[in-house]
Amino acid sequence: MSGDVLSQNEIDALLSALSTGEMSAEEMKKEEETRKVRVYDFKRALRFSKDQIRSLTRIHENFARLLTTYFSAQLRTYVQINVVSVDQIPFEEFISSIPNMTLINIFDVSPLEGNILMEVNPNVAYSMLERLMGGFGSSSGKVDNMTEIETKILTNLFERSFDSLREAWSGLIEIDPYLAEMEVNPQFLQMISPNETVVVISFNIVIGESSGMINMCIPHIALEPIIPNLSVSYWMQTNKKEPTPEQSILLERRIKKATLPVVADLGKGEISIEDFLYLQMGDVISLDTKIEDPLVIRVGETPKFTAQPGKLRNRMAVQILDTLKTGGDEDDE
After folding, report:
1. Contact at 8 Å (CB) between 139 and 159?
2. Does residue 228 carry a pLDDT above 50?
3. Which domains does the chain have, with CATH numbers?
4. Among 247, 244, 191, CA closest to 219
């Protein structure tokens, strides 16, 4: 038997062995305890929990959606980007997994320490370059002989693409990424120790009829200050930001200028449908209030004041007598 999930035949075999005495419950318990021991490779130190990996996956799925919109606009063609995998591996293993000649963008992500790598498959890079130059997006993949003009065009494209990373990371930390260097040979990269743990986010990108991979490599040293922010509790809590004094003053001014409907209720009355159908000008409807009773003033739909009717400069008006106390009002109102 292999794996944690047993098939129906394996379950039947175990039950049969127990019932016939071929295997005892104690033997099964010892076998289960033995299976709990796992080999741990210290060269592949797992420094991120599954919870933190899920948070990074969620962040970069949003990054993929933003990149899809950005590249579609810049390349003027159908572009689709999806997160394929998120793994933590040694930096040496990442370097050995990418082609000898590829396009590597090295970004500084201040205020975090270290750099982030974005490795772009040659097929993808040249497909983008041809689209920007007015072609159909086919790829030659000859990264080793890029001209200065081609390098500058791609540099501008990827520099602006990291605005999407800034937005995707905004809920985690405010970063200011900029392109520090562009390299084509991964063997020249000496960023961190070969055994340093890195998180590699792999994206599949489709540009028209061309497709390829984009890999982002984030060293542990860069994420270390914000690792606590990758927990579920951090994402579930509400981040309440106190307004600045200037924002409070502006908000107060706008509230003071807001308009509210104010209605004086003269009273209520009831009539039958038949009487309503025969109403004519000059008819009188009896109300349920007396002439000496104060009127109720409603602000919006809420009764707020009592008042007496009158006139002011030959116009109908009311004079406020008192404030009505309701369940939602403060005591010091």
Report:
1. no
2. yes
3. 8-38 (no CATH), 44-236 (3.40.1550.10), 257-323 (2.30.330.10)
4. 191
